[in-house]
């Protein structure tokens, strides 16, 4: 995620909201287009590999809500065009907001504005 610390602050601010982080295909795997980052993970080749990568993220960013792992077939990633990252708000099973694709369209401020507007409707 572009700014895990900023995201953690949002999770704390909106404590009544359930936040899910879905770990999708690794954008910069060590066995692919690698960059020097704090995770340095290979591309998952099985569901258990992907779950292990999600667990590593959870260990390093404990306050980003529940972390799930997309299946190795990348269904969630493809539905939301979520590689490398994307923000979405889903309320009662309905997609209310999908932000731009990261890293350039990843806009936490915009997501917070949309979330506040959605919460005001209640």
TrEMBL record:
<keyword id="KW-0560">Oxidoreductase</keyword>
<protein>
    <recommendedName>
        <fullName>Iodothyronine deiodinase</fullName>
    </recommendedName>
</protein>
<dbReference type="GO" id="GO:0042446">
    <property type="term" value="P:hormone biosynthetic process"/>
</dbReference>
<dbReference type="Pfam" id="PF00837">
    <property type="entry name" value="T4_deiodinase"/>
</dbReference>
<comment type="function">
    <text>Responsible for the deiodination of T4 (3,5,3',5'-tetraiodothyronine).</text>
</comment>
<dbReference type="GO" id="GO:0004800">
    <property type="term" value="F:thyroxine 5'-deiodinase activity"/>
</dbReference>
<keyword id="KW-0893">Thyroid hormones biosynthesis</keyword>
<keyword id="KW-0712">Selenocysteine</keyword>
<dbReference type="InterPro" id="IPR000643">
    <property type="entry name" value="Iodothyronine_deiodinase"/>
</dbReference>
<comment type="similarity">
    <text>Belongs to the iodothyronine deiodinase family.</text>
</comment>
<dbReference type="GO" id="GO:0042403">
    <property type="term" value="P:thyroid hormone metabolic process"/>
</dbReference>
